[in-house]
Amino acid sequence: MPAELRARLGRWETLTVVLLIVAIVYGAATADGFLSGQNLNSVLSDVAEIALIALPLTLIIVAAEIDLSVASVLGLTSALLGSLWNHNWPMEAIIPVVIVVGALCGAVNGFLVTRLGLPSLAVTIGTLALYRGLAFVILGDQAVTDFPTNYLNLGQGSFAGTEIPNPTILFAVLAVVFGVTLHRTAVGRAIFAIGANDEAARFAGLRVKRIKFWLFVVSGAIAALAGVVYTMRFGSARGDNGTGLELSVVACVLLGGVSIFGGRGHLLGVIVAVFLLGTIRNALTLNNVSSDALTIVTGGLLLLSVLGPSITARVREALRRGRPPVPTTTPTTTPS
Question: Which residue, 329, 324, 328, is CA-closest to 3?
Fold first, then answer.
């Protein structure tokens, strides 16, 4: 077997693709209508917000940080959207305002992490509760549902008469932007360098604190955008929208091969992992599996995502050791 092929087969991302294929085969074999266009629409719609939030979170985790407040930012912006609509604000003004509020939530996280030197895990656990609490302060336990049809179509409609949901098109555009930024620009190289060795990156002249700060700001803004999509997709603004969604997002990012310790990962693997999670959940739902079991599956995938890269690293090492020795030649000397 060629060395390059062995290396590719030993990569965690390859296993993720294999798992996606297995999930599709399982769904097609066990559930009627699984391969229909209508069900494709359902799968893509179900992971819309997870996919959007996973994009900036990938960059944050590559930089060796984490943001667990994303689902609470989604809920806060959904509640704010509903409250402003109740106060007769035009939707054209509401959407930019809630995205700015999401960015400000991210800025609070970024300030506490980069300027006060607090660990991002502790900070975002705290703001997870804070932002969710603010969502209930703003809207209480009521739901706002009387949104205009043309905006509901942004979350519920399909693109150009196809079975592809409109949020999937938004995700595809943003995925290209984030993918190019992470893998084809100096900013992306800086993010990888920061995740690999924060101190070395600082000595190399990188603006570590500034880069991390703006990553949190972008994360908050995209989470707010996901809040708008979530609200329009379900046609309901509530303070508890998106509760627990951060678990699925983190699971997808890590399952996609991004190292929890930073410095390693590829956005394409995360995208595959998002569709893998959506496919598994859809197939199990069509087979009448309970929602509690779906939560267990998500937790299992999260554990797999943590253990998997370590296992594949050992596989790669075993494959490397299995290569035939490279013959060496010794110089011959001619008699004088």
Answer: 324
Reported pTM: 0.88
User: Identity (one letter) of the amino acid at 146?
Assistant: D
CA-nearest of 66, 268, 103, 70 to 182 is 268
Q: How many CB atoms lie within 10 A of CB 189?
A: 13
User: For the domain with range 20-25+33-320, which CATH number is right: 1.10.760, 2.60.120, 2.40.50, 1.10.3470?
Assistant: 1.10.3470
Residues 158-206: pLDDT tens digits? 998 888 999 999 999 999 999 999 999 999 999 999 999 999 999 999 9
Region of 92 (left: φ > 0; alpha: ψ -120 to 50; beta: rest) is alpha
- For residue 322, the number of C-alpha atoms closer than 13 Å in the C-beta half-sphere is 12
The residues, any chain, with a CB within 8 Å of residue 178's CB and separated by 6 or more, are: 55, 56, 58, 59, 267
Cα gap 225→129, rounded to integer Å: 20
Domain ranges, ordered by start, for the chain: 20-25+33-320
